[in-house]
Amino acid sequence: MDPARTLLDRELLVSGIVHDLRGPLTAIQGFTELYDRNPRPVLAPAIDRMTSLVSTLAETSVSPPDFVQFGGVRVRVRGPIGVLELAIASLPHRALRLELAPEHLAVEISGVPIAEIAAGWSLAQVRLWLAEGGPGLAGARLRIAARIVGALRYSFPLTPGESEGVVHIHLARG
Q: pTM value?
């Protein structure tokens, strides 16, 4: 299997796991703060350990910062730029535009179907995507790829009534 796709899918799965852990963890934290006037000594450190584990899992940085070429521009990344290139190539879209700014390279991907927005996902959704594909998978992979490379910004603003949108990604210039 392709290493870039494997990394994207692994990080997508980990993101689904983190999503599924955060809800119960937040509920436990709230319960202990509101209802347990005399917390058991072992409970607070256990919650801290779980919170730390979830935070560690959520970190997608796979390597120290490096400088690479993307679209002919030198950018600073924290992961292999190939994952972003693969995710962009796999995403249905009409046009890709790069714009240089003093501190960053703005990547604008236009004509992206709204179905690819993938604002959030659970482990069940990720498993379904990986088994069957479908709308949202390419958008989720792009969002994960932006995290892996350490994008300064990722946005996919919605315009009511539109069937397509524009993804904005900012990469730090090097």
A: 0.84
